[in-house]
Specification:
The chain is of the alpha/beta class and 421 residues long. Helix content is 41%, strand content 21%. The chain has helices at residues 2-15, 18-23, 40-56, 77-89, 102-112, 129-132, 146-149, 153-161, 174-189, 208-213, 227-239, 255-258, 284-296, 308-326, 332-344, 398-404, 414-418, and strands at residues 26-34, 60-61, 64-73, 95-97, 119-121, 139-140, 165-171, 193-200, 220-224, 245-248, 272-275, 347-349, 352-356, 362-373, 379-390. Helix 8 crosses helix 9 (174-189). Pfam families: Peripla_BP_6.
Length: 421
């Protein structure tokens, strides 16, 4: 009787679909990434960098083979959630890496709450609210948010450049507000004055009206746009003959902009920016990563150096692989062990160690860069400073940061910050 039972179990196992048999030996990652819209080039670099991290891990994590499914988005929240749902319900992924853009991140925070047995590791989206307002317990962000990326830039332009009066042009959506807030907090506390604020829709093609309305009596213009929006702005700014000093938001002088065609981007020479990385960072971990990136992909199919978007997805993949290795690939029990491993220790990255706070939000380093001519007909970013251990409240108490209000067209209040309020 026992032999018969054993035989029947063995036959039953043989009859199981191959996918079911392989399931325990595989971990499936969904790459949720913008491959349409203003950040399509950056999104493609995000995919490349996930591939690089997996290649460096030998295609394995926690003793399991890594499989990937790419879900393309267009940066709109509706598309992002629809694609995320497909990853979970149809493709059967275990972990989602993404999304890329700010409003997508807020939407994914909310969607993550509907899939408590799965884990979402942010790609590179940077809206503050994603991890600050009612965060999801299964959403982790190993990149700094947009406000953190602005830390140090305002002080630099006031103290080192002597630019005290600025007008600002930024993208009229969650990340644009967040990145501007980080710059404005720093700038206003350093004694700077924001004369006028302009907001432009994400995906804009015509900036003529805004450029014509920019005031003349300012020391510089802060530009908080990126991707094709940044390229379009610079082309029209150049055509208008404008020559005011520029200050770049985090995505204004990324590789996606510096490697674009045409000479209009030369207007960025001398432009200071701040963000997650410095291309000439001497840290051995960064140099090794850049070399591995350059070796892994043919020169015509990658940027000269990893983009901000690529680095974000690389770090997200590193976090997933590191945690899976720590728990021997055990995703049972609603992935509780996996999430505990993600939150546990600082993650070693090419950007330096990254630790997470109680909101599962990164604390880390911000780099200050200036755009320079590379002497070979192109542009490069040169590191001129950095701010370390930048936390989510920008060094304020939680009460002070909360009292300032959420990022918006009108927040922060520069006058209140300048007076210490």
């Amino acid at each position: 009787m026992k032999k018969a039972l054993i035989a029947s179990v063995s036959v039953g196992a043989l009859l199981l679909p191959a996918a079911a048999m392989a399931q325990d030996d595989t971990v499936k990652l969904g790459i949720l990434v913008a491959l349409e819209g203003a950040f399509a080039e950056g999104g493609a670099d995000g995919v490349r960098n996930v591939e690089l991290a997996i290649q460096q891990a030998g295609g394995m994590a926690g003793g399991k083979k890594i499989e990937t499914v790419v879900a393309p988005t267009d940066t709109t929240p509706d598309t992002t959630v629809r694609q995320a749902r497909k990853l979970i319900e149809q493709d059967g992924v275990d972990i989602i890496l993404g999304p890329l853009s700010g409003s997508e991140g807020i939407a994914m925070r909310d969607y993550a709450k509907t899939i408590p047995d799965k884990t979402v590791i942010n790609g590179i989206s940077g809206a503050l609210e994603t991890t600050w307002v009612d965060p999801a317990e299964n959403f982790f962000r190993f990149n700094l948010d947009g406000a953190q990326w602005g830390a140090g830039l305002g002080t630099y332009v006031v103290k080192e450049k002597g630019w005290n009066r600025v007008a600002t042009v930024a993208a009229d959506y969650s990340f644009g507000y967040t990145n501007f807030l980080g710059f404005a907090v720093d700038f206003c506390r350093a004694g700077g004055e924001i004369v006028e604020r302009f907001w432009v829709p994400l995906g804009s093609s015509d900036f003529g009206g805004v450029i014509a309305a920019l005031p003349d009596d300012v020391d510089a213009i802060y530009l908080g746009v990126g991707g094709t929006d940044a390229i379009n702005f610079l082309n029209q700014y150049n055509q208008a003959g404008a020559e005011t000093n520029l200050i770049g938001g985090t995505i204004m002088a990324d590789q996606t902009v510096l490697t674009s065609r045409g000479r209009a981007k030369d207007a960025l020479i001398g432009t200071p920016t701040s963000g997650a990385l410095a291309e000439d960072n001497p840290d051995p971990a960064w140099r090794e990563y850049v070399a591995a990136y350059q070796e892994a992909f043919p020169e015509g199919e990658r940027f000269p150096s990893p983009s901000l978007f690529g680095v974000g997805y690389y770090v997200a993949a590193l976090a997933a692989i590191d945690a899976l290795n720590e728990i021997d690939g055990d995703l049972s029990g609603g992935q509780a062990k996996f999430r505990e491993a993600l939150a546990d220790d600082p993650l070693d990255t090419p950007l330096g160690p990254v630790s997470l706070n109680e909101n599962r939000q990164a604390t880390g380093t911000v780099f200050i860069n200036e755009v320079q001519d590379d002497g070979q007909g192109g542009l490069k970013n040169v590191m001129v400073g950095k701010a370390e251990n930048v936390n989510q409240t920008l060094g304020m108490t939680v009460e002070e940061f909360t009292a300032m209000g959420l990022p918006s067209r009108d927040t922060p209040d520069c006058a209140a910050l300048a007076s210490g309020g």
